[in-house]
Amino acid sequence: MEIGTVYEHRPGRTITEADNVLFTTLTMNTQALHLDAAYAADTTFGERLVNSMFTLSTLVGLSVAQLTQGTIVANLGFSDIAFPKPLFHGDTLYAETLIAAKRESSSRPGEGIVTFEHTGRNQHGVVVATATRKTLVRREPSA
């Protein structure tokens, strides 16, 4: 992984009503904006929103095949999470990731810490989510 490299994760993921309702109910989130169509119709948005935690989870999930499958040891933390625009049922989420930083672990030989900056966009290219994630990963041995 080279600092400054941007990975585009494809294909995207079209979010369905079933996805949103299942995730929202599984996580005990009773927010009417996600579950109650009549309530949501009377809000600024005019319809139900996709649960932002589902958006975040899917954003990270879209990156796994290219970046961390078989290499990740642990997620160390998330920061700078933002949802500048909502996702709605039927929107498609596309993800890209910038390798923002990396360093060798000072306490775990053979492992390193990589900082990812994830960006999620809808099918119109509008940014709907951003997050910075630090991970502990296995690294190749030094030469």
List key phrases describing it:
MCH/BMMD; 143 residues; MaoC family dehydratase; MaoC-like_dom; Thiol Ester Dehydrase, Chain A; 5 strands; elongated; alpha+beta; 4 helices; HotDog_dom_sf; 5-stranded antiparallel β-sheet
Write the layout of secondary structure elements.
Layout: E1 6-14, H1 17-26, H2 32-35, H3 37-41, H4 52-67, E2 72-82, E3 92-104, E4 111-121, E5 127-138
Antiparallel strand pairs: 1-3, 2-5, 3-4, 4-5
- The low-pLDDT segments are none
CATH class assignment of the domain at 6-15 and 51-138: Alpha Beta
Helix content: 10-25%
Which CATH architecture of the domain at 6-15 and 51-138 is right? Roll
Can you tell me about this structure?
The protein has 143 residues and is of the alpha+beta class. It has a domain at 6-15 and 51-138: Roll (Thiol Ester Dehydrase, Chain A). 24% of the residues lie in helices and 39% in strands. The chain is built from four helices and five strands; from the N terminus they run E-H-H-H-H-E-E-E-E. It has helices spanning 17-26, 32-35, 37-41, 52-67, and strands at residues 6-14, 72-82, 92-104, 111-121, 127-138. Strands 1-3-4-5-2 form a five-stranded antiparallel β-sheet, with helices on one face. A hairpin with a 6-residue loop joins strand 3 (92-104) and strand 4. The two termini are 16 Å apart. The mean pLDDT is 95. It comes from Rhodococcoides kroppenstedtii. Belongs to the enoyl-CoA hydratase/isomerase family. InterPro entries: HotDog_dom_sf, MaoC-like_dom, MCH/BMMD. It holds the Pfam family MaoC_dehydratas. Residues 2-119 form the MaoC-like domain.
